[in-house]
Amino acid sequence: MRHRLIVPGAIAAASLLLAVPASAAEPTPGAPGVGDPYYPDYGNGGYDVSHYDLRLTYQPKTDKLSGTATLLATAEQDLSRFNLDFALDVSEVRVNGKKARFKTSGAHELEVTPAEPLAEGRQATVVVRYHGVPSKVKVNDYTSWHRTEDGGVAANEPEAAWWWFPSNDHPTDKASYDISVAVPDGTQAISNGTLQSQRSRAGWTRYNWRSRAPQATYLATLAVGRFDITTAKTDSGLPVINAYSKDLGEHEGAARASVERTAEITDWLEGYFGRYPFEALGGYVPNTDTTYALETQTRPFYSPDDFADGSNTSVVVHEMAHQWYGDSVSVKGWKDIWINEGFARYAQWLWSEDQGEGTAQELADYAYASHPAGDPFWKVKPGDPGPENQFHRAVYDRGAMALQALRNEIGDKDFFAVLKGWPQKYKGGNAEVRDFVAYAEKVSGEPLAELFDTWLYQPSKPAAGADAGAASFAVKGTPEQPRSWKQIHTADHPRH
């Protein structure tokens, strides 16, 4: 044991000096949101998280989750108080080793008041101990935790973290992750990145997962249940981990025939988007009653429903395309969702072209002709659709039409240079629509503001024969539906 001589007055004064510089203004609370106009209370101001360490225990029989989350965060102002986004019950919070006061407010805010203010530029260690039954916790009348026969799954957009770990829940605050989960023997825990270790003791098995690359909170995932797990390596040596619920029934064959092609599809996508940006890949299919897929980083989530009509490589293309467009390069604000969905949809069009099931131009023609001028489809602006239309089909299909219009305008050479260069330029960061417009103009040397305004921001159907690429779309009648059309649209996902 180490003994210290304590001089109360001197220590108190020194602690205060270390916490807040003498010249600093009075510490103030961090904002309860990052200022995203779509979701004003998502994320928090005043700090940036660099790493999450989650040590969890989950009992599938009761759906009870308990855990300790350790966040490494740097103060971006002199902080008297800060918020975390979280919905489960909290038993204790410590900041830099000292107990902190905490209380809940709003729909999902955990207000933390540290024993001492945090100085701007200093890193703090925040430890939160918590517990709860995620499926029974409702925020705004819904839960993003999907209960299954043998466990539970966290996968949703734009929010999923509140039900299993405290966070700064907005894509602009990306971090690395260590996720350690103890589950009863015979049950598996699937998460992002690479499996570092797996150990069993006293009837429980602990799985330790690591995600090294910057990762948005909604892209973190956890699935606990009874899975059949397959492992392999890509030609370049990256680990491939896929998992399938053991009770998928008639969907199992189609799911495996699709998801097991992830490495092949990723290699194909590298030809368009450049080197794969992460250290692992794969996918998982739990037995949920959901109807959407989600681009959870390195290991996309797929619903059994995605394979209800048979194998579907197109949905795998969509979610793996997101690894570049949406995961590596994430939105600055949720209004920029086109950066995610328009490009993932266009990747499906390119796959269709490669598979001989309809060219990108034929798919654009069909999409354009399928919606008459008075269709509400054209009222949705992909560049700023509003939170109520964030996952509207127009964001996907009109968003992909915008890219076909760009391709027609600047030609294949410059277009594919843009597709590949963009995710390299913003790798690991965040960007907005206007950043993409500026980049496309720089690469092509052409003014493109009118084209993008027409396709992304005008609440009307681009006129046939007009500038901005519509002239090359089919305009007389409705062309034959491309063979890939139906399969492509199983990848769309509603918010809840």
UniProtKB/TrEMBL annotation:
Signal peptide: 1-24
Enzyme nomenclature, EC number: 3.4.11.2
UniProt keywords, alphabetically: Hydrolase, Metal-binding, Metalloprotease, Protease, Signal, Zinc
The keyword Metal-binding is annotated on this UniProt entry: yes
Pfam families in UniProt: Peptidase_M1 (PF01433), Peptidase_M1_N (PF17900)
Enzyme class: hydrolase
Cross-referenced Gene3D superfamilies: Neutral Protease Domain 2, tricorn interacting facor f3 domain
Cofactor(s) needed for function: Zn(2+)
All copies of domain Aminopeptidase N-like N-terminal, residue ranges: 50-219
Residues covered by region (Disordered): 463-496
Chemical reaction(s) catalysed: Release of an N-terminal amino acid, Xaa-|-Yaa- from a peptide, amide or arylamide. Xaa is preferably Ala, but may be most amino acids including Pro (slow action). When a terminal hydrophobic residue is followed by a prolyl residue, the two may be released as an intact Xaa-Pro dipeptide
Domain Peptidase M1 membrane alanine aminopeptidase per the UniProt entry, residue ranges: 311-455
Family: Belongs to the peptidase M1 family.
PANTHER family in the cross-refs: AMINOPEPTIDASE N, PROTEASE M1 ZINC METALLOPROTEASE
Protein name (record): Aminopeptidase N
Species this protein is from: Streptomyces spirodelae
